């Protein structure tokens, strides 16, 4: 008994020490805040000490543009060839010759593309998937969005293979060279995934101009990281027995990689391909601002003109395209995981690939007939529909009948929650934030994390962006907090009821497929522009990881531990709260981490609806082509995400170690 007591005292002593340290630290920050008249430099970073990083970056970009324009023009010319071919094939027409003598070859027939989509879905997942994928393309055609959707699809069809090949080789290199993964690849991936999407557009606009090539390069940079991570993960998970067997069989290093390891890692690689497709679609929509055109440009124009119906129709077309591509790539990944790979060796191509041959034949035939039957070449206006007047009427009806309720809710939220929280965050001493976050890093993982977290936080202050940074933290923080308040209980209920999980899963799958643009449209209709709109759209976008990780965490608790709890006499409630929930806590916190990162990504998109934070800085920089201002603001946003990610990851690792 004495031993037990002393052990408990030994464990509790560090906790008591850290509680005392935190009490002293918080008291010190409070004193600094109260003495801000005497210590103004500790609360608001002095303007005279701001480091002009933005000016340095702008000067560097101007130098690159002046001295390396030959390189950027060469890249544009090389990438423009396949891109122009894809856009002409799907959305435009091929023009051979010049002037009046030019001969026009038609783009692919919309009927043929819909049929090919059905065949692809049927081959990957059966008739139900074929009807879904073909139906999505038919929906796009019948609602008059065909040309815009094909512009978007054309960009994706070139960007995605580029991302896959680049990500595959980068992942192989990082897997083979651990030092490269640790020092180069992982930090680069962290920056690529946390720098906001708008920040990618500014240097692309400056270096490559307002063109589809700029949009494609920005898309490739944004969408490549999942493929790199999937390649590293897939290769590291290949069983050692397979590796040993390939060496015993006399394979060279190259043969072992390409004929043994990569085929064994194919299921994980296909998951990476799926993520690349979805991120590329999301980025292509945003890249419409620098010349990509397509559905994203239609949404942007409609939102600027406050044309609710047109924005909603283009947004739903984006959703249809996203669902089709997501379900198709998931089905292919699933069939690869099960090993459904056609092994028949036949001299004739059509016997080896009957579905591909049939799809190509239909495309060729319908396109050629389109020369004589215009209805096959272009979607006839007589069969198209528009729901724009209905959406506008619905919004007008809601506005007229529920305006007072919606406005009262919006004003109450602003006055009682958002404004006080914003004032608290913007008034928080920058030196206190650097100190407290550094202390948290030291407690969780030691000096290295403390220095990293403190340095990244200080960057936001010394570049003169502290007030904008705290405005971003406030809006992202409240959105992520509410998303967790909603998502974690739903995840807990889903983990305890299979029936409820079957209801929730399609909803969160749909939310995950929706591009970020689409969350803004319905909220703007009801709440107009401002922080409330940004918060609601961000909650809807970021709630998915909280639900998914909570459900997964509870369900992955080993059944043997649950049986042991039951044998020891625990009630179902005690088993849940004292066994399952503590063991699932690291997974749940990982979901919270992902929720914060997704909220941060969405907050930047919400700069389009009037928020006043770092996202607005990037948005203004994009409109003025001010590369320095946009890149520095983008780095500040990325550093917020990296600080949150590192702290939560360290906390999760510590919790896992404590729970064994």
UniProtKB/TrEMBL annotation:
One of its GO terms (cellular component) is ATP-binding cassette (ABC) transporter complex. One of its GO terms (biological process) is choline transport. GO terms for molecular function: amine transmembrane transporter activity; carnitine transmembrane transporter activity. It comes from the Bacteria. Its main location: membrane. Residues 149-329, 469-648 form the ABC transmembrane type-1 domain. Keywords: Cell membrane, Membrane, Transmembrane, Transmembrane helix, Transport. InterPro entries: MetI-like, MetI-like_sf. It is found in: Cell membrane. It is a multi-pass membrane protein. The lineage of its organism: Bacteria, Pseudomonadati, Pseudomonadota, Alphaproteobacteria, Hyphomicrobiales. The chain crosses the membrane at residues 15-35, 42-64, 70-91, 103-123, 129-146, 153-175, 195-223, 276-297, 356-378, 390-415, 449-466, 472-494, 506-526, 588-610, 630-648. Belongs to the binding-protein-dependent transport system permease family. This is ABC transporter permease subunit.
């Amino acid at each position: 008994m004495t031993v037990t007591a002393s052990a408990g005292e030994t464990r509790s002593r560090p906790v008591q020490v850290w509680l005392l340290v935190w009490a002293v630290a918080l008291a010190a920050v409070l004193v600094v805040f109260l003495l801000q008249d005497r210590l103004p430099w500790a609360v608001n970073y002095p303007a005279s000490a701001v480091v002009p990083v933005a000016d340095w970056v702008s000067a560097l970009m101007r130098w690159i543009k002046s001295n390396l324009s030959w390189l950027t023009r060469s890249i544009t010319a090389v990438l423009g060839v396949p891109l122009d071919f894809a856009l002409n094939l799907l959305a435009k027409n091929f023009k051979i010759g010049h002037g009046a003598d030019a001969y026009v070859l038609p783009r692919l027939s919309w009927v043929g593309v819909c049929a090919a989509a059905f065949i692809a879905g049927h081959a990957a997942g059966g008739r139900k998937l074929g009807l879904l994928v073909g139906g999505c393309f038919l929906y796009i055609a019948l609602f008059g969005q065909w040309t815009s959707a094909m512009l978007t699809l054309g960009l994706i069809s070139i960007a995605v293979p580029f991302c896959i090949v680049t990500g595959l080789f980068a992942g192989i290199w990082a897997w083979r060279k651990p030092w490269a993964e640790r020092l180069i690849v992982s930090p680069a991936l962290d920056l690529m995934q946390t720098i906001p999407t708008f920040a990618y557009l500014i240097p692309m606009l400056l270096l490559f101009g307002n063109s589809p090539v700029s949009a494609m390069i920005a898309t490739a940079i944004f969408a490549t990281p999942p493929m790199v991570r999937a390649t590293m993960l897939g290769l590291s998970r290949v069983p050692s027995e397979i590796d040993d067997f390939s060496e015993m069989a006399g394979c060279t290093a190259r043969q072992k990689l390409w004929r043994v390891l990569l085929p064994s890692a194919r299921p994980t690689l296909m998951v990476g391909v799926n993520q690349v497709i979805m991120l590329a679609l999301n980025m292509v929509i945003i890249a419409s601002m620098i010349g990509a055109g397509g559905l994203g440009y239609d949404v942007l124009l409609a939102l600027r003109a406050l044309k609710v119906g047109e924005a909603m129709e283009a947004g739903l077309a984006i959703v249809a395209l996203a669902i089709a591509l997501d379900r198709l790539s998931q089905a292919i990944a699933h069939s690869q995981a099960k090993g459904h790979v056609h092994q028949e060796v036949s001299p004739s191509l059509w016997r080896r690939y009957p579905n591909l041959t049939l799809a190509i034949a239909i495309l060729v035939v319908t396109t050629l007939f389109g020369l004589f039957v215009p209805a096959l070449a272009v979607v006839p206006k007589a069969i198209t529909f528009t729901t724009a007047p209905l959406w506008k009427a619905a919004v007008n009806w809601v506005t007229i009948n529920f305006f007072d309720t919606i406005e009262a809710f919006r004003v109450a939220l602003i006055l009682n929650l958002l404004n006080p929280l914003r004032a608290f965050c913007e008034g928080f001493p920058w030196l206190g934030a650097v100190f407290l976050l550094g202390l948290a890093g030291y407690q969780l993982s030691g000096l290295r994390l403390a220095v990293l977290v403190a340095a990244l936080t200080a960057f936001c202050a010394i570049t003169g962006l502290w007030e904008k940074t705290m405005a971003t933290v406030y809006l992202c923080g409240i959105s992520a907090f509410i998303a967790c308040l909603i998502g974690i209980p739903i995840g807990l209920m889903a983990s305890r009821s299979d029936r409820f999980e079957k209801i929730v899963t399609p909803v969160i799958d749909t939310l995950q497929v929706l591009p970020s643009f689409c969350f803004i449209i319905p909220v703007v209709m009801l709440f107009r522009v401002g922080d409330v709109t940004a918060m609601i759209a961000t909650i809807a976008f970021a709630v998915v990881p909280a639900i998914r990780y909570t459900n997964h965490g509870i369900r992955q608790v080993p059944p043997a531990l649950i049986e042991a709890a039951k044998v020891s006499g625990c009630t179902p409630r005690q088993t849940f709260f004292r066994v399952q929930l503590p063991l699932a806590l690291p997974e749940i916190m990982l979901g919270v981490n992902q929720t914060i990162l997704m909220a941060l990504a969405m907050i930047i998109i919400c700069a389009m609806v009037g928020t006043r934070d770092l996202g607005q800085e990037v948005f203004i920089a994009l409109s003025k082509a001010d590369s320095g201002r946009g890149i520095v603001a983008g780095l500040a946003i990325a550093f917020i995400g990296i600080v949150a990610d590192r702290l939560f990851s360290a906390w999760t690792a510590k919790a896992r170690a404590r729970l064994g």
